[in-house]
């Protein structure tokens, strides 16, 4: 039995295969082909955090593949306080074929996987967002023709989204540049992991965003203040003020460069509306790709 808690849970070949399968599933849906790979499968969605894209894309993917989903707010089922995460996992494993978790702490996902008798998918934790990374890699492939050899400039916080995408890029041969103020970059242990995973020179931290985007194929942004960081908002707004993706910064990038954002966007903060709504932005296609990437992940774990 396999789990998908982070990008590192798959090999390079498996990750490439997931992206190719996601692309195939997307084309298949466009052609109107039926998909029953999850027939008679029940998947529970256990969420501590509010959600739009993660919840709806998983529920739609499961239904479109012939399965059934159960949405379980963590507060309602008492995850971790009414009973332990481990007891919850042992019980739920007897009812459902898989569980998708969207939680605050990655330790919750790890505890669930250790105790469960069914596959666990990390729909988001403070450490990792592998489903987003899979959709991002599919989007990069569509926008650039291929992933290998491309340069992705992530402008903003070195958060769970950035870590997951950086690892995916390292595995598939893309260069990942992180442009963030001091104190908001990757920790040394993760940088070591990246350098061991990908080719030499595959990762670089460049504090000046104008320099970071100079040869970038993709400019990527995410919110500066994530859920659970609300108390840091004012300080983060000050520290990240020079890291907005706007028309001026985009002009420093090659003309073919595309803009990505995992959404929701705080328009006027990390990205301006003219860029987000502009012709170089593929953020909404990227959001749509969550559906297809997650179909491929569920298929890999369950079909």
Write the layout of secondary structure elements.
Blueprint: H1 12-30, E1 42-47, H2 53-64, E2 68-73, H3 74-77, H4 85-92, E3 98-102, H5 106-115, E4 120-124, H6 130-144, E5 151-155, H7 160-172, E6 175-179, H8 188-197, E7 203-205, H9 209-212, E8 218-221, H10 233-239, H11 247-251, E9 258-261, H12 273-276, H13 283-302
Parallel strand pairs: 1-2, 1-3, 3-4, 5-6, 5-8, 6-7, 8-9
Distance between the termini: 12 Å
Percent of residues in beta strands? 5-15%
For the record, the CATH architecture of the largest domain stands as 3-Layer(aba) Sandwich
| SSE arrangement, N to C | HEHEHHEHEHEHEHEHEHHEHH
- Please work out how many helical segments DSSP would assign: 13
Radius of gyration: 19 Å
Question: Whole-number average pLDDT?
Answer: 97
Shape: globular
What structural class should be given to the helix and strand makeup?
alpha/beta
Described by strand count, sense and barrel closure, the largest sheet is: 5 strands, parallel
CATH fold category name of the largest domain? Rossmann fold
Total number of distinct structural domains: 2
- How would you write the strand order of the largest sheet? 7-6-5-8-9
CATH class of the largest domain: Alpha Beta
The name of the CATH superfamily of the largest domain reads Aspartate/ornithine carbamoyltransferase
Unreliable spans are none
Helix content: 40-55%
Q: What's the total number of strands? A: 9
């Amino acid at each position: 039995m396999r789990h998908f808690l982070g990008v590192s849970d798959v090999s390079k070949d498996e990750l490439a295969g997931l992206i190719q399968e996601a692309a195939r599933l997307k084309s298949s849906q466009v052609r109107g082909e039926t998909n029953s790979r999850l027939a008679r499968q029940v998947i529970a969605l256990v969420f501590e955090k509010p959600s739009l894209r993660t919840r709806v894309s998983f529920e739609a993917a499961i239904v479109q593949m012939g399965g059934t989903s159960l949405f379980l707010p963590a507060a309602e089922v008492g995850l971790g306080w009414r009973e332990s995460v481990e007891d919850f996992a042992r019980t739920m494993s007897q009812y459902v074929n898989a569980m998708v978790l969207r939680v605050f702490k990655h330790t919750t996902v790890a505890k669930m996987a250790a105790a469960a008798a069914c596959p666990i998918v990390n729909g988001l934790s403070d450490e990792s967002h592998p489903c987003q990374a899979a959709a991002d890699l599919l989007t990069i492939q569509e926008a650039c023709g291929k992933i290998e050899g491309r340069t992705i400039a992530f402008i903003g916080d070195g958060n769970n989204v950035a870590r997951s995408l950086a690892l995916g890029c390292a595995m598939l041969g893309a260069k990942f540049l992180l442009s963030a103020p001091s104190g908001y970059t990757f920790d040394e242990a993760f940088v070591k992991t990246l350098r061991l995973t990908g080719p030499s020179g595959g990762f670089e931290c460049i504090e000046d965003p104008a320099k970071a985007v100079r040869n970038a194929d993709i400019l990527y942004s995410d919110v500066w203040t994530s859920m659970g960081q609300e108390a840091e908002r004012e300080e983060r707004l000050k520290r990240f003020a020079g890291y907005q993706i706007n028309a001026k910064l985009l002009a420093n990038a090659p003309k073919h460069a595309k803009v990505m954002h995992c959404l929701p966007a705080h328009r006027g903060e990390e990205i301006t509306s003219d860029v987000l709504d502009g012709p170089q932005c593929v953020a909404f296609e990227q959001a749509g790709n969550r559906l297809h990437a997650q179909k491929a992940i569920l298929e890999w774990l369950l079909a």
